[in-house]
Amino acid sequence: MADESKKNMLLLSGSRAAGNLPEGEKPGFLDFAEPWIAEFFAPMVAAGKPVLFVPYARPGGTTEEAYFKTVQDRLAEMGIATVCAPAAGLTEADLMHVGGIFIGGGHTYTLLHKLQQNGALELIRQKIEEGLPYMGSSAGTIIACPTIKTTNDMPGPAHDVIDLKALGLIGAQLNCHYMDDSMHDPKHQGETRDTRLREFCAFNPATPVLGLYEGQALRIRGGQTILLTSERARGTKPPVFLGSKREEIECEIGVPKDVSAVLEVKKPLLQKKSPGPRL
Question: Is the pTM of this model over 0.85?
Fold first, then answer.
């Protein structure tokens, strides 16, 4: 059984956040999360170890090489060295001399598909459970969940991914880039994000789902889960869906919030067996 006390993770809802930005100003890549990232990777920077970036999610037509270059340049501005995961897939040797792993956002099915194909999923899970620091963003955050069933992505080219099971490093499901009902065009007649998440919970009543606004993140140390909210967050009341219930978590910008108990998976109640007939 894995030692929960060794887990060390930073899970970003996404890599950009535009909350509270002046009109017309575009959010920078990882800007809102820079203080969190710098603190998270500080021990490995001090130890002279690089971060291994996994570019397999490949957002919107970007090559893995171009994606890595973007991340490499941005993290270098924070004083963090990076190396790229091989295109052919990860092996034990690739993780021997790195201080942590960062899996970026993009297309969740493509990411999971490649990790399953090259056998890296179990390797990554094992290393993180042994204490290797892990940072995820968007798709890289979703795969920390038991499954990728609460991603916003469509299957796309990875249509043959039958097994949606992911790393299972946390017990709850997450929905990144969460949008509450006020963010939807009122003229739109399709399903809202809340509707979709309620539908998931109807089929999975014991699994909590947290909607993470852009500009928010989870910081996990052992068995403790802290919710972080930046000044660029698009909302400060992220919802947790469980069964038929929807409850909001009251957050303050810059104030960490312990949500460990909120995200516990609830065990279904066992039905009492009726006593058999007396003989």
Answer: yes
